[in-house]
Design brief:
Number of strands: 18
Low-confidence stretches: none
Structural class: alpha/beta
Distance between the termini: 47 Å
Strand content: 5-15%
Bound molecules: nicotinamide-adenine-dinucleotide
Radius of gyration: 28 Å
Number of helices: 28
Length: 688
């Protein structure tokens, strides 16, 4: 008894042994933990005085999964499978005591125990699919036996965890412990011993293994995931649970896991996982810099973005004040927020009481001075420099000392905005993406004068409100939109050369984006850009012609595509084809048929080129930051790992040669490969 090793402790409470694992921060099942667990189980099995065992974790959570830094390294025994086998070989009841998030291998370990108890706030899940994997320690075989194949597949394919209450209702856990978990788990184990309850392992249960309905459920769950290896493997593994004996199913699961873990898709997804964590480390913030405390926020402007940003605060339990110029505008903004929440409630994604609680955290005012009490202010007024400068001058006057002052601008110079105040060290950009309450990406724009602790505050707040913050420098469009602009130029050029919107969009969705550039333009609306161009005396051959013909996008039922009333499904439109062909003729551009491969290259490579320039200029810190921006802000397929990662997979010499070719054939010098690409390609290396 006592310490087994640095991570595992074994003690006794009467006839119950308690194995406690402490491997901060999330009790990942690293080698030392697995070895300690095996040893603790061996000792308790041999100890005649022990009648039952509780496995629990210290700190904030039960095992949140495998130690993914061990992926791709030679396995070190005992593996998780051996720990699980040791649990199942126990002739004394083993109770898993769950709190926090029992995820992946942690949940699989719990599934091998005879019983599971949990605190009400605990969540359990198998998120492996999010790393392009499947649960590889029996999860695909045990969970279907516990709750039936359909429900199990849903958890495994979505990777989304379930709450303790749902887990109890489904029979995943046996009891919810109110109050002290360890004490409750020990009491539970004692009851099991006293009552002499039979020790039935999940692997031996067969009653829930019905095949009926499984094929349909699998089809529905994976319909939108075609071309992805992991979901297909999950389906196969769960189907095996129905059709094969347990041991064979387990063996097949192992084979599928090994295939996935060495495959390109999972490697790309693991790259994004690590890049996201890395992005939180911002160079130039000295070690030990403390973020400023944030207990309340303010948002200026109750428009599309302001309302969504306020919801982010409320969702995280932070009180927020929205400031508008007039009562009506304010009310309209608050109504939109309420309607947004109501939609989530009616979809079952939020309780009505929780909606009330969140709405109560949002207050609206028309008096600007109300921002004086906020620790952090986010400005989301119209995109006009003079207006923003006025707002920041006002903020300078009323905001409290040390408040962080952020702008949500998409294009304006954050340094110029900062200079409108006497405290540029407190000013930065917090660039949310629309819809702000949904999109995970948050570009944090560091100004020339931004203080490290102001920056650290914005990053910390970003994480607190469940965003993925990536710090970038000041330039037009920052990282994401600056790269996107390259794609837009090329998309129009493709239309003029012979492609149609449906062909371009099909190539882009075929690559894995959820939406093509033209369907996206229709959703955003074509008229805004058209009016801006008119004001500046600029022209866009196709889009202006479309707008002149009343094609404003989804809002008018026609844009680059046609939309049947009430539908958002883009339908190819012969009138658009005519407008495009006219534009080609007007500009003397011969039309030709363009292969999908060429479209894909021209949609992707110019963005990679711009990404390289962004790295050269130091606007982004690392290629991985750019990848994270594209995955979380623009729907880049995560299993392709982001544009810079993708470029490395293809090889930069190839990217260089293709860019040179397109620069020659189009006469557009911006397509010439960036110096960084040329240098790295010559060295035979990549961005990462
Ligand atoms: N819409 C997007 O997709 C998107 C995405 C990222 C960033 N942005 C940026 O966010 C900002 C807001 O964009 P939006 O789409 O929400 O615009 P919007 O027109 O929907 O909302 C702007 C709101 O600001 C209010 N406002 C104007 N002056 C004000 C003042 N002095 N005080 C208080 N409120 C004032 C307006 O009444 C309006 O309700 C812009 O800088 C935009 O570039 C927009």
């Amino acid at each position: 008894m006592g310490n087994i090793n640095a991570s595992v402790d074994l003690r006794r409470d009467g006839e119950i042994a308690i194995v406690t694992v402490d491997n901060p921060p999330v009790n990942a099942l690293k080698h030392e933990v697995r070895a300690g667990l095996t040893e603790a189980l061996r000792q308790t099995a041999e100890d005649a005085a022990v009648k039952g065992v509780v496995i629990a974790c210290a700190g904030r959570t039960f095992f949140a999964g495998a130690d993914i830094t061990e992926f791709g390294k030679p396995p070190q025994a005992p593996g998780l499978g051996e720990v699980i086998a040791a649990i199942e070989a126990m002739s004394k009841p083993v109770v898993a005591a769950l709190h926090g998030t029992a995820l992946g291998g942690g949940f699989e370990l719990a599934l091998a125990c005879h019983f599971r108890v949990a605190v009400p706030s605990a969540r359990v899940g198998l998120p492996e699919v999010k790393l392009g994997l499947l649960p590889g320690a029996g999860g695909t075989q045990r969970l279907p036996r516990l709750i039936g194949p359909e429900k199990a597949l849903k958890m495994i394919v979505t990777g989304d965890p379930i709450e303790a209450r749902e887990a109890l209702a489904d029979g995943v856990i046996d009891e919810i412990v109110e109050g002290d978990l360890a004490a409750g788990a020990i009491a539970f184990a004692r009851r099991v011993v006293a009552e002499g309850r039979p020790l039935r392992l999940v692997r031996d249960r067969e009653d829930k293994l019905v095949a009926e309905g499984f094929a349909d459920a699998a089809e529905t769950l994976t319909r939108r995931l075609r071309g992805r290896d992991a979901p297909a493997a999950c389906v196969e593994a769960v189907r095996n649970a129905i059709t094969l004996p347990f041991e064979e199913g387990l063996k097949r699961e192992g084979e599928l896991f090994r295939k996935l873990v060495t495959g390109d898709q999972s490697k790309a997804q693991r790259h994004i996982f690590f890049a996201e964590r890395e992005a939180a480390r911002v160079p130039g913030i000295p070690e030990g810099t403390k973020p400023r405390p944030i207990t309340s926020g303010a948002v200026i402007g109750a428009g599309t973005m302001g309302g969504g940003i306020a919801m982010c605060f409320a969702n995280a339990g932070i009180p927020v004040t929205i400031v508008e110029t007039g009562r009506d505008l304010l009310q309209r903004g608050l109504d939109r927020v309420a309607a947004n929440y109501r939609a989530t409630v009616s979809r079952g994604g939020l309780g009505a009481d929780e909606m009330e609680r969140r709405m109560a955290l949002i207050s609206g005012v028309t008096e600007f001075d109300a921002v004086g009490s906020a620790d952090l202010v986010i400005e989301a007024v119209f995109e006009e420099m003079d207006l923003k400068k006025r707002v920041f001058a006002d903020l300078d006057r009323v905001a409290k000392a040390d408040a962080v002052l952020a702008t949500n601008t998409s294009t304006l110079d954050v340094n110029e905005i900062a200079r409108a105040t006497s405290r540029p060290q407190d000013v930065l950009g917090m660039h949310f993406f629309s819809p702000a309450n949904v999109m995970r990406l948050l570009e944090i724009v560091r100004g020339a004068a931004t203080a490290p602790d102001a920056l650290a505050t914005a990053v910390a707040l970003g994480r607190r409100i469940s965003k993925v913050p990536v710090t970038v420098g000041v330039c037009y469009g920052f990282v994401g939109n600056r790269m996107l602009a390259r794609r837009s130029v090329e998309a129009e050029r493709l239309l003029l050369e012979g492609a149609l919107p449906q062909e371009v969009d099909a190539a882009v969705t075929g690559f894995g984006f959820p939406m093509g550039p033209f369907a996206m333009a229709d959703m955003a609306g074509l008229d805004v850009g058209w009016r801006i161009r008119k004001g500046r005396g600029e022209r866009n051959a196709i889009e202006d012609a479309l707008c002149e013909a009343g094609h404003f996008g989804q809002k008018t039922g026609k844009g680059y595509f046609r939309y049947d009333s009430g539908s958002r499904t883009p339908v190819p439109d012969p009138e658009v084809e005519r407008i495009i062909i006219d534009a080609s003729t007007r500009l003397n551009r011969p039309r030709r048929s363009i292969a999908q491969e060429e479209i894909v290259e021209r949609m992707i490579f110019p963005m990679i080129n711009e990404g390289a320039r962004i790295l050269e200029e130091g606007i982004a810190t690392r290629p991985g930051d750019i990848d994270v921006i594209w995955v979380y802000g623009y729907g880049w397929p995560v299993w392709r790992g982001g544009p810079m990662y993708y470029a490395d997979q293809l090889g930069l010499a190839h990217i260089r040669d293709r860019l040179s070719f397109y620069a020659e054939s189009s006469g557009d010098d911006t397509l010439r490969p960036a110096a960084l690409i040329r240098r790295l390609a010559a060295e035979g290396s990549g961005f990462a």
